[in-house]
Amino acid sequence: MTTEIIVNEKNTEKIEAAIAEVQEKARERCIDATDVSIACDRIWVRLGVAKTALEGVSFSVDLWAQNFPKAYKYRAESTQFTLTFSKGSWRVSNIVRAYTRGAGHCYECLALPEKAQAYIIASKKVF
Prior knowledge:
There is one protein chain. The chain is an alpha+beta fold and 127 residues long. It has one domain. Strands 1-4-3-2-5 form a five-stranded antiparallel sheet. β3 (77-86) and β4 (89-99) form a beta hairpin. It has helices spanning 12-22, 33-47, 114-125; strands at residues 5-6, 58-61, 77-86, 89-99, 107-111. The chain has three helices and five strands, in the order βααββββα.
């Protein structure tokens, strides 16, 4: 899925349909629309930036990122998606099944504009 869907309650069914299309036969490491909205909130809280400074911020999300034992014979897959903050709201796109990332790599920053960087640096100078 490559089209962008605004993450809000009104579009929950559209997000669920897009996820269902990707997870058609998958039984393990799946997500739903609630996971997408929770990821939006976690990114916003973790960055600690005002929404006006978030414009253009983009993250790739794999909520099931984990390490597997060496004896594990297969490459595990999980449902992953991209979140972008644009025009005042989060948008989900690029929902795919891909190899699960290693532990600690749930959120990978794809784009962090200068305005957001400056805001983060300024907010961390005083505490």
